[in-house]
Amino acid sequence: MNFDTPSQSPIACAQHWFDEAVASNSKPNPLAFALSTVDSEGVPSSRMVLLKGFDEHGGVFFTNFESPKARDLEANKHASMLFHWDDCHRQLRIRGIVSRLTEEESDAYFATRDKLSQISAWASDQSQPLKSRAMMMAKVASLTAKWEGRSVPRPEHWGGLRVSLEEIEFWQGRDGRLHERIRYTCVDSDWSWERLQP
Q1: Would you list the DSSP string of 45-91?
Q2: Distance CA 165, CA 61 (A)
């Protein structure tokens, strides 16, 4: 990202920042981001999730469709993604509309997960109360035995979500809190940008 002469398209710039964060081994995880949603009552909620794909269509993550985040997004499809790379003194903010991936896309990603992670997608009623850890692990053991030596199918209640690219903001930390910020906005596939004060 050249803050003196910003590009007309922020997508390649965002990908470059992702690549640099990964290459620099930024801690704790360069592809972790805060996903913020709002429920049907207008109450906001944020949680850390992992970016599993990024292109001109948006940023992708995977979740249980019966989780609070997914229920929020059924009620209000607007979401924001915030990446913070402290080592690079950078933040990247994305806002957009959430949609589901196709079943084929979700199946393809699910097949790449390790078997325990696949089983956990079946075992966990994400974010629901749990009486004991032992109960959860017993369920995992039972499912592990069920699928021993066989492929684990993707649960229908689990899959991918994509946040479209309606707005992307690049934030670069500078001395004296004189940070540089460029915000891009997409309307009808055309990007425009404006410089923001620190």
Answers
A1: EEEEEE--EEETTEEEEEEETTSHHHHHHHH--EEEEEEEEGGGTEE
A2: 14
Indicate whether 87 pLDDT > 80.
yes
pLDDT greater than 90 at residue 125: no
Measured on CA atoms in the order 138, 142, 145, 151, is the torsion positive or negative? negative
Of 194, 186, 175, whose CA–CA distance to 3 is shortest?
194
Tens of pLDDT, residue by residue over 54-74, are: 999 999 999 999 999 999 999
Separation of alpha carbons 155 and 158, rounded Å: 5
Tell me, what's the pLDDT at 177? 93
Whole-prediction pTM: 0.91
Of the residues 93, 113, 174, 177, only one is catalytic, namely: 177
Using an 8 Å Cβ cutoff, are 88 and 20 in contact? yes
The answer to whether residue 150 is catalytic is: no
In one letter, which amino acid is 113?
A: R
Residue-level pLDDT at 9: 84
| Structure tokens that stand for 131 in this block | 């009486």
Output the CA torsion sign for 55, 71, 154, 48: positive
